[in-house]
Amino acid sequence: MREKLITRREILSAAPASLLLGTGLAAAGDSRSDRGNTLIGALLSLTGDWSTLGLASQALLQIAVEEVNEFLSALGQNRRFTLLVEDTKLKPDLALQKAVDLVSSGARYLIGPQSSSEAAAVRTFANGAGVTLISQGSTAGSLAIAGDYLFRFVPSDEAESEAMVALLRARGVKVVVPIGRMDLGNEGLQIATRRLFEAAGGVVRTGVRYGTDVKDFSAVLQTLSTQVSQAVAERGSANVAIYLTAFDEVADLFSQAQGNAVLESVKWYGSDGVVLSAALLGNAQAARFAAKVDYPNPTLGLNPAAQPKWLPLSQRVKQQIGNEPDAFALAAYDAFWVIALLHVLKDETRRAVYSNEVLPRVADLYFGATGWTRLNEAGDRKYGDYDFWAIREVNGALAWKKVLTFQSNPDQPGTIIELE
Q1: 282-314, pLDDT tens digit by residue?
Q2: What is the rounded CA–CA span in Å between residue 350 and residue 68?
Q3: CA of 27: how far to CAs of 74, 131, 354, in Å?
Q4: Rounded CA gap, 240 and 257, in Å?
Q5: Which of 369, 184, 405 is nearest to 296 (CA)?
Q6: The pLDDT of residue 355
Q7: Domains (ranges, CATH) in the chain?
Q8: pLDDT score, position 138
Q9: Looking at the DSSP assignment, which residues form a beta bridge with residue 175?
Q10: How many angstroms separate the Cα of 37 from the Cα of each of 81, 106, 252, 320, 376?
Q11: Please, which residues have CB within 8 angstroms of residue 370's CB and are 6 or more apart in sequence?
């Protein structure tokens, strides 16, 4: 049966009957939900690694604030929302400190943090304080926990790894040599991809990991080169691939890998933390290396049916910051809208129970910039296709370009569609 698209106005008008039935909670008309300001906090990496996502998320959240307040004004409501953004620099300890600061300032809802390591650091505090977290970037399967206060508007790493393994198999890769940053999210991707690729008959070598503060990658690249050389000697370069899970440090890594004949002899594959990275594209040497070794990176795909919503948002954000936002950043925009709709409905005297139990039901009804925001039992996005982006020469200059897509299917393996 085809699902009916529910508008924001319909969510508000239908909520007492469809969302609150049997909960004993207040309806939208409760006067306590019709006055005052509500502060929503955001934990974003604006100056650290993965700042491409942080800056795009910030721009989209600012747009969401404007739209939500205009929407409430049109409904004749006096309530308004404000946004307070804190820069976490992608550091878990700092993310926790900033979360405490935001809650002390009055925020009861936090969008972010964007990495899994940060989300893990903040999660216990949020659970104890009854503060709702909605991450637009965390994917670690270890954080897929039912009943907590962490919700994720992107799928867990299992879904992304399924897309990656489908691509590796479609291209005939038999052996993968992994390399990755040692943080919760990137490690989760490595674990899930290894499990799925080996289950499909592939071989995954030991690989190499590096710390979050590494700048000199010479030793890391030497170890990687040795393992790749051995794999190529045994299976041939066409059957060997490097799988890299990283953030913006990839720019330094690729700059230092430039000219290494072994590492340039095989194709590289990436992860969501590098998609549309301004740091990588802005480093000419690293960008040339990325283009030479192919290096497609997956991110949550954008629903074609939602194009009338995400396209103007993407164009507006690109004018502001110079980069198009990916679906992860657009998920932050959707998260703000869902929180706003939820808060308008909530009963102030039962905030924690209401938010934790009803947020998924609001998300189930919401169709936003990323399409349906339906969540699974663990509070993570339930469905997701993936777009793969790579650096290519476009009109004489290197640029990010969508090169293929993965269409998921709940009942059978997904499909890879090459766009080049």
Answers
A1: 999 999 999 999 999 999 999 889 999 999 999
A2: 23
A3: 19, 21, 12
A4: 17
A5: 405
A6: 66
A7: 8-154+302-372 (3.40.50.2300), 158-299+385-418 (3.40.50.2300)
A8: 97
A9: 203, 240
A10: 5, 10, 44, 27, 31
A11: 153, 300, 302, 303, 306, 310, 327, 330, 331, 334
CA distances from 17 to 29, 76, 349 (A): 12, 21, 20
Kindly state the average pLDDT of the residues 139-146.
95
Q: What are the Cα distances from residue 73, in Å, to 34, 69, 80, 182?
A: 11, 6, 8, 47
Task: Record the tokens describing residue 338, joined without a space.
Answer: 């869902």
| Mean pLDDT on 335-353 | 73
Pairwise CA distance, residues 53 & 326, whole Å: 8
Give the DSSP letter of residue 242: E
pLDDT for residue 250 is more than 70: yes
**pLDDT grade, residue 384 (50/70/90)?**
confident
pLDDT value for 60: 98
Q: How crowded is residue 213: how many other Cβ atoms within 10 Å of its Cβ?
A: 7
